[in-house]
């Protein structure tokens, strides 16, 4: 952390005009503060891990040394990031991969120490082990998302890094349950955004930006699903769609409510494929009705991605409302069916991981009856 100050050299600033030198100086200071806080968080996590560890072995020592090597590279990566206008994609990729590698080795340290519980305190509970693993994996997932987004938009990737910083700071002051909900909600919002970006880039005549909303409902409840859908639409309205498109949050709210309704009736499961497809079709039909109402009331133009479909039906019918209705019906049924099947598949995978009793297999000495000890 102290090596970061080596990047605060003023020799190059003296060669620039005063205005540019001040701007560059502020940029260097912000980079220093940001990276120092990030490393402080890593230090806290490292300290928390070794609070439980009572013994070491050669594997743990090597994992810790490699972790420290990735930390030693951070000042170099921060220097590249400060010159992102020159290095571009290389700078953000190196910086994210370096910070991501540090987290991965922190996870490996904790995994190795708790694999057979031979290196941690005897009173370490399975709940504490799982909680720290999930916390590390959650941040790793966001770093992976930031890395993927960097190949699409560098600014968005930097905003994700800023979010990670804010989240980790806030997470120190809120309970674990609330922290997990917040991280899960933001992860689902990011999944919707990434899917929307991919659809736009690949020019797919669908939306596919509601599947993570349904996923949030299945795994987190209708409240989290509503928050995910509304926040996603407000973000897109503020960035890509335009301010007048905030009304589409009602469509996301409808998707969340329908997902919750059918999930409670056990229709959203891969074991009942016909009911699952029926959910997608009914959601598409109901969402079409709402979409047409929104388009008429808000006087919105057809979505660019499906504009050729709208044009085709407009030439056939000569009526804008009818063409919009048929276009939305064709697109929404396919879109919502794919979205709900994808959400069900991902949710099924996550629930299998949750239900997998790894401690029963690998930790026979630890009792799951927290009231008693074997």
How does this structure look, described?
The chain is built from 15 helices and no strands. It is flat, with a radius of gyration of 25 Å. α9 crosses α14. The protein has 374 residues and is mostly helical.
What descriptive keywords fit this protein?
374 residues; mainly alpha; Arp2/3 complex 21 kDa subunit ARPC3; 15 helices; 76% helix
In short:
By secondary structure, the protein is mainly alpha-helical. It has helices spanning 18-52, 58-72, 74-82, 84-87, 89-114, 126-150, 154-171, 176-202, 211-220, 222-241, 249-264, 273-298, 307-317, 320-355, 358-362. The chain has two domains: 1-169; 174-356, Arp2/3 complex 21 kDa subunit ARPC3, CATH 1.10.1760.
Domain module tally: 2
Strand-residue proportion: under 5%
Mean model confidence by pLDDT:
82
Rg, alpha carbons: 25 Å
The end-to-end span amounts to 44 Å
What is the CATH domain class of the largest domain?
A: Mainly Alpha
* Structural class based on helices, strands and sheet pairing: mainly alpha
Runs in which pLDDT lies below 50 for 5 or more consecutive residues are 356-374
Question: What is the N-to-C order of secondary-structure elements (H for helix, E for strand)?
Answer: HHHHHHHHHHHHHHH
Counting DSSP H or I runs of 4 or more residues, the number of helices is 15
Shape: flat
How many strands, what sense, and barrel or not for the largest sheet?
Answer: none
- Helix fraction bin: over 70%
CATH topology of the largest domain: Arp2/3 complex 21 kDa subunit ARPC3
Query: Number of DSSP strands?
Result: 0
The CATH architecture of the largest domain comes to: Orthogonal Bundle
